[in-house]
Amino acid sequence: PYSMRDGEEDLLHHDESTWYMGKMKREQAEEMLAGKADGTFLIRESRQKGCYACSVVVDGDTKHCVIYKTTTGYGFAEPYYLYASLKELVLHYQHTSLVQHNDALNVSLSYPVLAPPSR
């Protein structure tokens, strides 16, 4: 039988309210992600002006990486500033590991922090 499950998971990533937290301190992000499954993530404004931060659970621990906004787009590092929006970046890394940018981040952005628990 056809399952809606995969489609529903993609839809959550399309809904920025499930993962974009706006102004949020690093400590608040860590509290929100504490005890969550690996791959649970949120995006917030970074203290660095014009940048954002991605907070993601890896091996039960919350890690943070900067998302830069450049004239060519959003991304974690050269030459990956390709994404026209934070949502495009999130959709790409939903299925792609962050390990290419940081050896400590062998994880993809699987679960938006505010997504309802999957049944």
TrEMBL record:
According to the UniProt entry, its GO molecular function terms are: 1-phosphatidylinositol-3-kinase regulator activity
> What InterPro entries does this protein's entry cite?
PI3kinase_P85_cSH2, SH2, SH2_dom_sf
Q: Which GO BP annotation is one of this protein's?
A: phosphatidylinositol phosphate biosynthetic process
**One of this protein's Pfam families, by short name?**
SH2
Q: Which GO terms describe its cellular component?
A: phosphatidylinositol 3-kinase complex
The UniProt keywords, alphabetically, are:
SH2 domain
SH2 domain location, by residue?
19-113
**Name of the protein in question:** SH2 domain-containing protein
